[in-house]
Structures are given as structure tokens and as C-alpha cells.
Amino acid sequence: MSALFEKVLIANRGEIARRVIRTCRRLGIKTVAVHSEADANAPHVHEADEAVLLGPPPPKDSYLNRDALLAAIEKTGARAVHPGYGFLSENSDFARRVAERGVTFIGPSPEVLDAFGDKMKARHVALAAGTRPVPGTDEPIAIDTPEGVAEAKAVAGRVGYPVIVKAVGGGGGIGMQIVREEAGMERALKTCSDRGKASFADARVYLERYVQEPRHIEVQVLCDAQGNAYALGERECSMQRRHQKILEESPSPAAFFQGEEGAKRRADLFDAALRVVKSVGYVGAGTCEFIADASGDLFFLEVNARLQVEHPVTEMVLGLDLVELQLRVAAGEPLPDLSRVHPEGHSIEVRVYAEDPKKGFIPKPGAIDELVWAGGVGDAQTRALRIESGVAAGSKVTPFYDPMVAKVVAWGADREASIAELARALAGTKIAPCVTNVAFLQAILESPEFRSGRYDTSLAEVLAKRI
To answer: What percent helix, strand, coil does the chain show, rounded to 5?
Structure first.
């Protein structure tokens, strides 16, 4: 029996629930899966030691149902809760209610979650810590007053068009609109405010300079309660469709990270990320997200106060188990000296979705009768290849949740070897009769733009038009 926690409830589903179960099993920790009616026969339910039904398929009635989750914790006697990512992973109210029951929330404290609860709060934390956010407004824009609209136009004139209006509570590209000239400002403010209110119950908006040819770079951080904090490398996350990531790699192949000057830029980036999290007493795993322009000038965007979907590429190049380290930090243990851990080789992750790239990446839920990965049926876990899937043959991709089928993660001694391993894995993949983006992912790997490493967040949409 592990000395960490006797039993952990995983407040999530799919591949991340299976990922946490795998580490817990290795450490001798019992696990509790939760599920909706739609996920009653999902792999994560069968792999856990116990399973609890939360409710009907809609997330609000199941995975977002805090009362049902708290009841499951009490029923099973779980001593800790791992929230995964998405759903309630960054919800300070849920974390607070878990802690009030004497149960450990495996993540930052409710106070830290509040500090990074929306993009505006995160911007304030970064400014106070001396880390540069993208130039823009430091407070929400009062869009219902002439003075507020005039202020937005004045800021846009100062930072330079084009600018981007963002919903304060936004995510996944929702509530964002580019404004290229002053005449479009008022309409953009109203549109983003309306979308923010509808999607996040938050009508506030703010404005930033729109970074041209942007690259999305994020830094993995890990901090313990004893004051130790580490930046565990960067991830390149610029391959996106609809502002959502579909491929991530580590280290970043960007030219501005090469050579002595690039090494200094990387060190400065890590320092900027650590200043932000240290300033709020962060404990746990998290990610500081930055955006870079073509010259390599980096600006802070936000903090994801949880594990990221793309965490495996960091694990592959560092040889670490971030879930295990999360568990140990949550149990009060100090981190080992991670300053001695250095990246080896290159890792790339692609997200296999049940979607149609030829039709605007529209989700295509449906049954999966046959599921074959390179090397055989089932999930692979090797030094060179990891397949992390939330489904199995006989499963269904339902319309209720994100349509991700799996993450295929490859490692190689260098970037070319990693691309070759990933291409081999995708060539050996068969998912039927479900429509997926596998062929599109193969097209990305074959494209000269991607292979050169000189790409930005627009490339996926460009490549989609070629197929």
C-alpha cells in the first residue's frame, strides 16, 4: 500500500482518467472512477478499483455536478481527488468544497485557482511579478458607455492595429475577434461580450495587440509546498485549428530558440514563468502560456493551473511521471532536485479526433467497431511510442463530450526521428467506421512547412484547404 494516499477519486473521464489510474496502480493506490450514463462501459470505468455513476450524459448533470462528485467522495472514502484537465480542474469552488471535507485536492489551492480564474486576473498577477503580458488593456472595457468604447479605440491606436478583443472568461477560442481598423471596434466589443456571457456567464471583455504570425509556447512548471519550483522545459503548441491544439512538440523547433542567443531567450522565458507562479505561492503542476511574434519576442498569456493534455511530450523528453510528482507534492512531499533533469531527444504528440477536416473540423460522433494502433490492438506504452486513448473497440464517441479518440505520442533521438516514429504509428492506425483526422495529421507531418519548424498558428487551417 502506498504511503501517499490510500484511495484517489478521479473527477474526470476518458484518456486522462486512464492515465491517472495507470500511475496510481503502479504506486499501489486504489482508484475510484466516476462516469455518466453514456460512459457506463468506458475503459476508465473498468480499469478503476471502484466506479460511481454521477448522472445523465450532459456534463452539467455528471462531470460538472459538484454535489454528485462530493457524494461519490464520501461514499467511497477517497482521500484525494485528481481533477485531470477540463471540467472542474480549475474550479476554485469545487477545490474548496473538497478541502472542507478533509480530502486533498490534487492541484493548486482554491486561492491560487482564484488568482488565475480568468485572463484578466492572470494578467494582473503577471504584471505584479514583472512578467510582460501582451500590450493591451489592464482592466475590462466598459462597452456599454461611450467612454469605454473610446478608451478601447485609444488603446488600440496606442498598441497598433490589428488588435484582438477577448472575453475575460474565455477559452478554446470562444469570445475572440480580430479588429483591423477602428470602424470595427464597437461591433467586436459587443459580439465578444455577448459570446462571453452566453458561454461563460461573464460579459467582460478586454483588448490586446494582435500578434502577427504568432507561435504558442508554453512552459511546464512544478512547485512544492517547501518553496521549490522548477520550469521543466517548453512545448510548442502552434499547430491549432479553431484556436485549439492538435499537435504539440518539445522542445520547440523555433529558430529563435537556437544557438547561444536562443538559449538565453529560453532561460529568460523559464525565469518569467517561475516569477509568475512563485508570486502566488503555487503548489502543484501547471503551465504558463506565452505567445511569440516572428522575432521571438515573448509575451505572457495565462496560466493553466492543472495538468495539460500535452504533458506526455514533456514526460517523454525528461523521463518523468508528472502525475506521480503531482501526487507526491499533494501529499506534502518535497520535489527531488529537478535542476539535474535535462531534456533528451524530441517528442511530438498528435490528437486523434472523430472529426472531418474537410468540413471545417466538424465533430463526427459515432461507433468504433475496430480500433488498431501501430504494433497491435490496445494502448502502447514504450520509450518511443505512447498511445493514450479513452476508447476501445466497441466504444462510441458521443456528442456530449470532446470528440478526442486518442493521443499518439512519439519520441526520437532528434526531431526527424520523432517525426518518422509518429508517421509510422499513424500509418498503422485503423479506426472504423468512425471518421477521424488521422489522414490530416499525416499531411501535417509530411508538409514542408512543419518539417522546417518554421510554422505558426495559421498553418493547420492552411493545410486543411489543401486536402
So the answer is: 35, 25, 35
pTM: 0.94
The pLDDT tens digits of the residues spanning 424-461 come to 999 999 999 999 999 999 999 999 999 999 999 999 99
The beta-carbon contacts of 392-397 under 8 Å, at least 24 apart in sequence, are 392/43, 392/368, 393/368, 393/369, 394/41, 394/368, 394/369, 395/41, 395/42, 395/43, 395/367, 395/368, 395/371, 396/38, 396/365, 396/366, 396/367, 396/368, 397/354, 397/364, 397/365, 397/366, 397/368, 397/434
For the residues of 77-93, what is the DSSP string, one character each?
T-SEEE--SSTTTT-HH
Domain spanning 215-464: CATH 3.40.50.300: no
CA neighbor of 91 nearest in space, from 103, 83, 81: 83
pLDDT digits (tens, 9 = 90+) for 64-81: 999 999 999 999 999 999
Does the domain at 7-106 match CATH 3.40.50.20? Answer given as yes
Angle, CA 234 vertex, CA 162 and CA 440 arms, to 5°: 70
Q: Are 338 and 230 in contact (CB under 8 A)?
A: yes
Could you state, in order of their start, the residue ranges of all structural domains in the chain? Answer: 7-106, 135-209, 215-464
What region does 177 belong to: left with phi over 0, alpha with psi -120 to 50, or beta? beta
Tell me the DSSP string of 170-239: --TTTTEEEE-SGGGHHHHHHHHHHHHHHHHS---EEEEE--SS-EEEEEEEEE-TTS-EEEEEEEEEEE
Tell me how far apart the alpha carbons of residues 212 and 210 are, in angstroms, rounded to a whole number: 6
Residues with a catalytic annotation lie at 306
